[in-house]
Design goal:
The protein is an all-alpha fold. The chain has two domains: 158 residues, no CATH class; 248 residues, Orthogonal Bundle (MetI-like fold). Helix 14 runs antiparallel to helix 17. The protein is flat and about 90 Å long. About 2% of the residues have low confidence.
Length: 432
Amino acid sequence: MASSNDSSKYSLKRPRNLATLLSIIVPGLGQMYNRRFLKGIFLFIIATSFLITTWDFLDIGIWGLFTLGTIPREHHSVQLLIQGLISVIVLLFGIAIYLFNIKDARSDAVAKENGKPNPGLLKGFTNFYNDGFPYFMILPGLIMLIFIVVLPLAFMIGIAFTDYTQYNAPPRNLLSWVGFDNFIDLFSLDIWKNTFINVFTWTIVWTVVATTLQIVLGLFLALLVNDKRIKFKRTIRTVLILPWAVPAFVSILIFSALFNPTFGAINRDILSQFNLIIPWLSDPFWAKVAIIMIQTWLGFPFVFALFTGVLQSVPADMYEAADVDGGTRWQKLKFITMPHLLFATAPLLIMQYAQNFNNFNIIYLFNEGDPAVRGQNAGGTDILISWVYKLTFETNNYNMAAAITIIMGLMISIFAFFQFRKTAAFKEEGRY
């Protein structure tokens, strides 16, 4: 029993445990115990300065994040939410410094137990340069990323769980946390449920059909131009890439005028010859057909250029071997050409689907998501992203817009994650 007590007392007196305990109580004190006085003083100053300069900000920020204010017209809920999120980020940085202080003190104590001498000032700077300099250099970029990307995303997620609407907006009113009520309303209230189902199904149809058509057209033209019997390849490639060279918004506005049922050239000069007048802008079905055709026109040049470049890298001896074995054109396309194309381009093709899922430009510039549809608060050609835009800037339903944005982000992330994992390029990464 005495031996056990002696062992326990000895373990508490070991330098690593004592240094860890001291650094937990006061940052930098464990380093001073390890006779790393400059490092200890530096960490103590950093910790003290952090607490003095951020205490009031963190206090108000954390309070505001939980309450969103208590006095209408005096407390601004949105500002308190933003300050609260910034406080959480700053607090995480402080916790990271605190944990580094504990780990560093324990590491120095372990080295001391093993009989290693404390490194001098020059040796300490050398170790920092070798081990920590890369992290030090990426720190400004990381901080910028957090405040430019992570903070707005966190703010959007926070808004999705509040009652922030046009009729309940600060500073006149205070916001409240409503939990998952916005998501429940989206799938339970008729006006929101019907609109969401219609817009969501059209978004899926739009993404799949428009993207698939532009990929198929680009693949067909790339295979055609790559045929040895085709002459003037450079001229043909240049002409086919021209739609990509023109800014997309210019092409969309031109097409919007061409499809105008009153003065557009398509109805007036082409379809009128067959006694046809199609309501391209006023009928939801024909507006969707027009948008899909325009996106096919705008998107195929990139796919064509992508496939054309990959086709140049397919070894010619593989086709020669297939000819010797009596392979048909279809067999060469299926077993040689397509595997090479998909291996090199699958990630980019997946990104084409993700990009068209959120292709706001063509929807808004062509017809602003119209025409209107009875019984829903979105236009006939609105996809989720354009509907979110209208909810945010036209009807000021910020909470519902944020909730829909979260659902969109989750869908795209899950789709991209699983599709990337199935691609051969992803499976082969890191093997070489």
